[in-house]
Amino acid sequence: MLTKKNFLNEIILISPVVFNDDRGFFYENYHELKYKELGITCTFVQDNISRSKKGTLRGMHYQLNNPQAKLITVLRGAIFDVAIDIRIGSPTFGQWYGTELNDENHNQLFIPEGFAHGFYVLSDFADIHYKCSDFYNNKDEYGIQWNDSKIQINWPLLNEPILSFKDAENISLTDIDNTKLPKYSVIK
Ligand SMILES: Cc1cn([C@H]2C[C@H](O)[C@@H](COP(=O)(O)OP(=O)(O)O[C@H]3O[C@@H](C)C(=O)[C@@H](O)[C@H]3O)O2)c(=O)[nH]c1=O
């Protein structure tokens, strides 16, 4: 059976039903009706795939005016996937949840709108697929420092992470202008 667990109330960890046989495996990584029953009611409009090498950290990203809920799946490899609640006024503001997603447990993470998202690559390479509930808009993207000292994400680091130039410039949640953060009352 398709199973789920909730974290910070709205983050959903999904364990799909995996059919293994002599050829390999099969699973449904999204099914509108079944995922609606799990509480994933948004409409996905964009799918993305990225490949990253070991020790890469991408994050912590969000869009403000075009917020994206995301459904994360690891096609190949292993990552530590993290979401932070950055909705001003939320009872869990500033709290994070992280878990390992890999190509053996096939777990998926659903991250609602209003959360910042990022991941760290544990395997030699990791191929990630994620569905998004709104389109990418490069004028609306923001980032929070991966190692924000107030948030204290417990990354299972193997090295000093490999970051994009953009992510190396991200600032802490405390230093971000409040007008650049989503509001719990609007998202809810
Ligand atoms: C995210 C994205 C990027 N791009 C382009 C912009 C840029 O030239 C190139 C690489 O972009 P980035 O460096 O922003 O890619 P990346 O650091 O992988 O960004 C992603 O990180 C993870 C953690 C998320 O949660 C995603 O929503 C997204 O923000 O791809 C698109 O064309 N469409 C997209 O949807």
From TrEMBL:
InterPro entries: RmlC-like, RmlC-like_jellyroll, RmlC_Cupin_sf. Its EC number is 5.1.3.13. It comes from the Bacteria. The keyword Coiled coil does not apply. The keyword Isomerase applies. The active site is at 61 (proton acceptor), 130 (proton donor). One of its GO terms (molecular function) is dTDP-4-dehydrorhamnose 3,5-epimerase activity. Gene3D superfamilies: Jelly Rolls. GO terms for cellular component: cytosol. One of its GO terms (biological process) is dTDP-rhamnose biosynthetic process. Pathway: Carbohydrate biosynthesis; dTDP-L-rhamnose biosynthesis. The record marks 136 as: Participates in a stacking interaction with the thymidine ring of dTDP-4-oxo-6-deoxyglucose. It catalyses: dTDP-4-dehydro-6-deoxy-alpha-D-glucose = dTDP-4-dehydro-beta-L-rhamnose. Keywords: Isomerase. PANTHER family: DTDP-6-DEOXY-D-GLUCOSE-3,5 EPIMERASE, THYMIDINE DIPHOSPHO-4-KETO-RHAMNOSE 3,5-EPIMERASE. Homodimer. Belongs to the dTDP-4-dehydrorhamnose 3,5-epimerase family. Catalyzes the epimerization of the C3' and C5'positions of dTDP-6-deoxy-D-xylo-4-hexulose, forming dTDP-6-deoxy-L-lyxo-4-hexulose. This is dTDP-4-dehydrorhamnose 3,5-epimerase. It comes from Silvanigrella paludirubra.
